[in-house]
Amino acid sequence: MNKIRVLIVEDEVIIADNIRDALESLGYDVLEPAINFTEAIETIENEKPDIAILDVQLSGKKTGIDLAQVITDQYKFPFIFLTSNSDELTLNEAKQVSPSAYLVKPFSKRELYTSIEVAIFNHSQKQKTFTNNQIKEDDALFLKIKGVYQKIKFNDILYLQSDHVYILIFLTNSKTILARATLNDMLDKLSKDFIRVHRSFIINSKFLTQISGNTVTVNDSVIPIGKKFRQVILEKINYM
């Protein structure tokens, strides 16, 4: 069995080395630690880690939370946050990107090991559950809803909204479908026309009619834009 590949992103070299030593003693395959956002992305592209351990505060303009958002949107593997702060503001910011665990320094080797194993297990179970509940086509998705597989064409979807462990799928015929999945899972299965605009919303850009300061309009529905997603939206559309 291949060892789990772990990426450490920590700008304090001594702490990074201590974490690496602890992980290697536990039998993990530990990649060369990265100290900032740019180094981390380069390592992710080249080494394909299974999990990342991210310090919330990094040197440079982009934080560990910024990196976590990119991992969630593009690379889709689990990550754990490290921080010296456990204040409410830091916790609330971290929760927006749904980390698998949150460790406050200093932490024990046992806490580190448990967090990694639980994160890897939960991620694999989530992937397995979603795979077992859906069949994908190029222009449609089959979702298992109330024991029956229903075909949903991408062109019939206006937008999707998170509702705890479920998602609401709003259709062009004004109907709504409730399915057990997450937005991250769905985004991975949908076409390139679908854009994450908020931690709770994905829209079909084919039906995007207006962008304002903090909302988008999809047909007649007004949907909030998360501040971390606005630039992503602009990069995917033609505008002057």
Describe this structure as you would to a colleague.
By secondary structure, the chain is an alpha/beta fold. The protein has two domains: 5-130, Response regulator (Rossmann fold, 3-Layer(aba) Sandwich); 135-235, Beta Barrel (OB fold (Dihydrolipoamide Acetyltransferase, E2P)). The chain has seven helices and 16 strands. A hairpin with a 2-residue loop joins strand 12 and strand 13 (201-204). The longest helix is centred in the middle third of the chain and has 24 residues, at 109-132. The termini are far apart. The mean pLDDT is 86.
Attribute tags:
240 residues, alpha/beta, Rossmann fold, OB fold (Dihydrolipoamide Acetyltransferase, E2P), 2 domains, 5-stranded parallel beta sheet, 5-stranded antiparallel beta sheet
